[in-house]
Design a protein that fits this description.
Blueprint (H helix, E strand, L loop, with lengths): L1 E10 L2 E11 L4 E5 L6 H9 L6 E6 L2 E2 L5 H8 L2 E4 L11 H12 L4 H14 L15 H13 L5 E5 L7 H17 L3 E5 L3 H7 L2 E6 L2 E6 L1 H6 L3 H8 L2 H16 L1
Parallel strand pairs: 3-8, 3-9, 6-7, 7-8
Antiparallel strand pairs: 1-2, 1-4, 4-5, 9-10
This protein binds adenosine-5'-triphosphate.
């Protein structure tokens, strides 16, 4: 579980995050949603330690990350897997070498053990057959799956994904969402996903934190999204492609009736 307590982030005199408190639960896909510029990325960067909070605390299973020394934070990062926008793979390394890279850097395993572990993770994302290919020889969706395999290779307790579906078609996005949801359950990770994708909200939104202009406007699950009377949340969700499509189908059905 990751707990954010009264988090405020200012850049000079600009307050980007204002007194945010939220709990992100273990074994669940926790989503951060909000309009462009609302502060989602800044929130995630504070949580993983890429930015320093101006005020507030971040607790990893009760451990106060904000109070840790630099060395302790580096140790904590080994418990975190990260998937950034785009897949951010090394073009000159094969799929397997990409997945194995964190092991080569941070583990004391033998070469044989590292290769075995990388292959286990590739198998988990159903890409073992592509292990000798280079990133430019595989599709965008496959590249994302390689990034997921790489993010879990060190067995993280916490998984962070920034817009995992950006640049992917809806069908491939569903595959990625399903995979993220499954590995979250399998490995009992605390997974936090920044997303614009309302299909993801409705598919894997077990715990959704809605950020509006830097403050927490709403928190709930996907079923509560549907029944919520929060106008700002409804504006965000019902302005999405998914709901426009649902509405269009309903209108067509009415016309045909
Ligand atoms: N280093 C910085 N210095 C000053 N302002 C910043 C800095 N980083 C982000 N901001 C501002 O913080 C606000 C929130 O940005 P953020 O990137 O978190 O939004 P977001 O919700 O992730 O948007 P998007 O969905 O478009 O990625 C924006 O107004 C942005 O300009």
């Amino acid at each position: 579980m990751i707990e954010v307590k009264n988090l405020t982030k200012r850049f000079e005199d600009k307050t980007v995050l204002d007194d945010i408190s939220a709990v992100f639960e273990t074994g669940k896909t926790n989503l951060i949603i909000g309009q462009s510029g609302s502060g989602k990325t800044v929130l995630m960067k504070n949580i993983v330690g890429l930015l320093e909070p101006t005020q507030g605390q971040i607790l990893y299973d009760g451990r106060d990350f904000t109070a840790m020394t630099k060395k302790e934070k580096v140790m904590m990062r080994r418990e975190m897997g990260m998937i950034f926008q785009g897949a951010a793979l090394f073009d000159s390394l094969t799929v397997q070498e990409n997945v194995q890279f964190p092991l080569d850097m941070f583990s004391n395993m033998t070469a044989r053990e590292r290769a075995k572990r990388a292959q286990e993770c590739l198998e988990r994302v159903n890409l073992l057959d592509a292990r000798s290919k280079y990133p430019d020889e595989i599709s965008g969706g496959m590249q994302k799956r390689v990034a997921i395999a790489r993010a879990i290779v060190l067995n993280p307790k916490y998984l962070f994904c920034d817009e995992p579906n950006s640049g992917l078609d809806p069908k491939t996005s569903l595959v990625i969402d399903k995979l993220l949801s499954e590995i979250t359950k399998d490995y009992q990770m605390t997974t936090i996903i920044n997303t614009h994708d309302m299909n993801s909200v409705m598919g894997i939104g077990e715990n959704i934190v809605f950020i509006y202009k830097g403050h927490k406007e709403w928190q709930g699950n996907k079923d509560q999204v549907i029944s919520s009377t929060n106008k700002k949340l409804n504006d965000l969700v019902f302005a999405s492609d998914l709901f426009r499509k649902v509405k269009k189908v309903e209108m067509q059905e009415e016309e045909n009736a």
